[in-house]
Design a protein that fits this description.
single chain, alpha/beta, two-stranded antiparallel ribbon, 8 strands
Amino acid sequence: MLHGLTFAVDRGSVTGLLGPNGSGKTTLMRAIVGAQVIDSGSLDILDHPAGAAPLRRRIGYSTQNPAIYADLTVVENLRYFASVLRISPSDVDRVVVDVGLSDSVRRLGGELSGGQQSRLSLAVALLGTPELLVLDEPTVGFDPLVRRDLWELFYRLAAGGVTVLVSSHVMDEAGRCERLLLLREGLLLADGSPDELRDRTGIHDLEDVFLHLVEKRKLS
């Protein structure tokens, strides 16, 4: 459950939604993409209410559990989703390269490793020209080189005007974001850049920053 969250995200930015499991990250992301009904308040995305029909092709969403077909190859999965979204099949080649699956295009989804399945799910989210990318734990389980490449991709997309919202419960990912929204138990504990949060608390390590803010909330 979320409690009175108020924030706005700038277009063309990379924003991290950080917090432990159960903090409300996935609920918030599902609300943003229109898969979760909110009981009260308002949520506007790209100048439309969340879930509005015009947003369907403007938002790319990658869930924590890969949403792919195990009995289709990588390229067949992507061609299928491109047809559903009415996107040119030629875009498949681009996203395959973006996520580093060029050597696996003929492999079945069910034969891929967990990390490769996550990359395929991310490739689906990248199809077309989404203006907002909502990525739930997109780098979990990847080796450091793949994580580096994905973060470079996120920033290239942002430089082109795409707004990227990335969730994670791993605090060492936080420093890669331009801005952080720290959640715990459905509450927004803090909102600011990594350096702003360090300056505000006088603490350098971002995990310790989060723990400090949790304790401060308990005492207030």
